[in-house]
Write a structure and sequence with these properties.
three-stranded mixed beta sheet; alpha+beta; six-stranded antiparallel beta sheet
Length: 115
Amino acid sequence: MPTIFYLPEPNFTGVWPNKDDKAASPEYKDGVSVFKFSIDSDEAPTALFSVCEEPYAQKTALGGLRKGWVNSVCHFEGFPPPNSRNVKSMTDGIAIRQEGGAWKVQIKTKIQFIV
């Protein structure tokens, strides 16, 4: 059975650092969590990831377009319409575990903007 955990937004290079304020959480945390990760075991070197469906994560992902970090971990065609309200992950991305417990994007999650 896969292990699920949640992380906030990554940095501009597509890395989710493993720091106290950016550490993985086994539960979704409103106001913090943006991405949902799934691994086959605690020692697995790769994880699948997608944008969380909760309202905070959706708002943060849309705001991440202006801040630039969305481009580092999400693939999308064209910019969203101004009235976009949600982000849907169409395919999972893949991240690789780094030394120190950080995760780095290897394949971006494909997203679609929903009006």
